[in-house]
Amino acid sequence: MRVLKFGGTSVADAKHFLYVADIIEQKKRQEQVAVVLSAPAKITNHLVNMVEYTLNGINIESNINDAERIFIELLNGIAHVQPGFNDVALRNIVQKEFFKLKQLLYGIALLQYCPDRVHATIICLGEKLAIAFMEELLIARGCNVTVVNPVDKLLAQGGYLESTVNIPESTWRIRRSSIPNDHIILMAGFTAGNEKSELVVLGRNGSDYSAAVLAACLRANYCEIWTDVDGVYTCDPRKVPEAQLLKSISYQEAMELSYFGAKVLHPRTISPIAQFKIPCLIKNTNNPNGPGTLISHIEVDEANPVKGITHLNNMAMINVSGPGMQGMLGMAARIFASISRAGISVVLITQSSSEYSISFCISQSDVLNACKVLEEEFHLELKNGLLEPIDVIKDLAIISVIGDGMRTQRGLSAKLFSALASAKINIIAIAQGSSERSISVVVEDHMTTMGIRVAHNMLFNINQIIEVFIIGIGGVGQALIDQIHRQQKWLKNQNIEICICGLANSRVSLTNANGINLDNWRTELIQGKEKFHLESLVNLVQKNHLLNPVIVDCTNSLSIAKQYADFLANGFHIVTSNKKANTASMTYYQKIRMIAKKSRKKFLYDTNVGAGLPVIENLQNLLNAGDELIQFSGILSGSLSFIFGKLDEGMSLSEATIAARIHGYTEPDPRDDLSGKDVARKLLILAREVGYELELQDIHIESILPEDLNVTEKKVEDFLLKQLPTIDHIFDTKIRNAHKEGKVLRYIGEIRNNGCCKVTIKSLDKTHPLFSVKDGENALAFYTRYYQPIPLVLRGYGAGHNVTAAGIFADILRTVTWKTRDY
Ligand code: ADP
Ligand code: ASP
Ligand code: MG
Description:
The structure is a single chain. The protein is of the alpha/beta class. It folds into four domains: 2-229 and 264-289, Acetylglutamate kinase-like (Carbamate kinase, 3-Layer(aba) Sandwich); 308-455, VC0802-like; 464-611, 3-Layer(aba) Sandwich (Rossmann fold), CATH 3.40.50; 618-798, 2-Layer Sandwich (Dihydrodipicolinate Reductase, domain 2). It is 40% helix and 20% strand. A hairpin with a 5-residue loop joins strand 27 (744-751) and strand 28 (757-764). The longest helix is centred in the first third of the chain and has 25 residues, at 87-111. The radius of gyration is 37 Å and the shape is elongated. The model has no long low-confidence stretch (mean pLDDT 92). The site of aspartic acid has 12 residues, from loops. The site of adenosine-5'-diphosphate has 19 residues, from loops.
């Protein structure tokens, strides 16, 4: 015997209804089957709303019409394809049932009250009709069918709305009805009968429980729960797309997962099947060939100690505290006895070690009732000040991590907490199940999706995720996009998922939380309508719960640099080649670092000095290892390295500058290079890195352009062709003098051991490490405590789109720390 249960979405419309009939027919060829059906999707919600709205005087016409339409469309759809399907008789049944329903609702409206018994009868109408439809459909297909009425056969105890089935008695009743072996058994889910043979229901989502109970009563070999997902996942797949399908879990794990919110199973489903060791398979009606998830008696899976992460929304935490609680015997018992008498279920409990307070979580809808019963129970203590007024925190959620193997694993809670901390999620309370099979944390409700995503990423996903937003789509920005595009596949194999979620230039921006199509970004960007705005970026990140957003600044804009503190505070890492932030005031320099530390975000700027050369990282490594800078000298500008190299070869300054511009080495206006300001910025960044608190104006700059040169030409071309040649002779003389001594001229940035920083034109002899540096190369010579008298020299192209982009790319990859599933 095999019990098959089909949920609401599996019988939502004619197409699915017919699929279900196919599955039943196919399964019955192998062994006898018993089928439990839910109400078609949405029906129970409509019925529940009809009662509630009627009590509140709200019009329910649309609910009635919608519900009736769902049934009629179902009948039409089945009748259309199934010959011999007696839809006429069923239409009459639907009509009669809706007539009865309207009468009951009319009565409720008059009474302004709905007894639980009537409530139960109303809300299980969907299951009743679904069974009637399926009976007729299977008969039309020539099957033998026996319908089991759950009101007669399943004896239940408890209230009308949340009953529990007595399995021994129900087993006996079902056995007594001796159903022929070749009959398909059909039974409505969600429904049972009490001792007075009145209809009761088993709680919302209770059809899973009906199936488990029927499987237990029939001592079935298998229980199959057919739903709209492929099985039980590591997290709700609707909230966390990366969730992974679980092949098998133990009864205890399934129980804990469903108790803490995995809606795919009703929490009470497991107990009856576990009692008789009936394996339970979760399957997808839309993908019947998928393997599904097997729930059975299995040994602890040491290799996969964590099985899932669940969440429960709309929770409230009640806190009972006061000086009277210390050492007072029986406080907890009184609290929970009174809560239980009120029929309120407590999901989680924590007690402070001082016994000064007890906190527990309940569903938000039970808060009023809970406060009332507690105030009654502790009337005297509250009056005498032994207890503080009952404290309620609303709008909370519980996130739980679940798995049998957790009890023997260290560090799992630390991982969960640090994941939540990284997303700035405040933990309000913590509880560990006594079985050590679960750890739960209470957080603010609106942080739920973010919380489960980061926790899932930390505990299950060995893939690291990077969501990049690039500002500035000039030469470097474009080279970076190309490099990322090229590397995406390779990085995926290294477990790094990188996607570009935003592009912005000074005019427009383009965003896509799932990643912009990099085959077509130019066309899409042109069509972009919005300008770049931090606010809309923050909205996008929050709405889509992005895990590791990185803003990449490829501009040289001061106004973007001024927003870094806000970027960091809003949860973005920053990677930048823009020097403006690091050369702004010392106060801003320190503020960025402070905010980065506080918000646990990275601020990376290795391309600020030497483009792709790993300058900053090496320097930081040396300093961290206890080294000290004694002196520094370097050629920090690719354009000036090129120009001074050409002077050696006999070109004039103006010719060399024009050539550098043609090669793309210079800034758009070469006066920015010749002024020495850019080199000064790089020098300042290095000096600050080693600890000198300097401002840009503290750097002494010897400009290449003589001080008395009044730059009169506005246009770059005019300056280069008319004005610059007027100073060529000065350099000719300097070069000649240097050559006479076997020296060359180089434009050098220097940091002395007293912190004095200078940018000067120097003549160097052959022994100097910077003597041969030209052709656009950069070279940086660090004289340190460890590196002397021969300095540490970093040398290579220090400008150019590709090398700079590669340096930025390396920084982007530094925003993730390599991680394995090592728990
Ligand atoms: P049915 O109507 O078939 O009973 P439900 O809607 O009650 O289906 O349950 C299936 C839904 O449970 C899925 O669509 C999914 O969104 C949700 N769900 C929550 N947590 C999990 C989980 N860990 N694994 C699978 N599904 C889950
Ligand atoms: N139809 C009922 C509900 O929606 C029972 C179920 O589907 O499991 O709660
Ligand atoms: Mg369900």
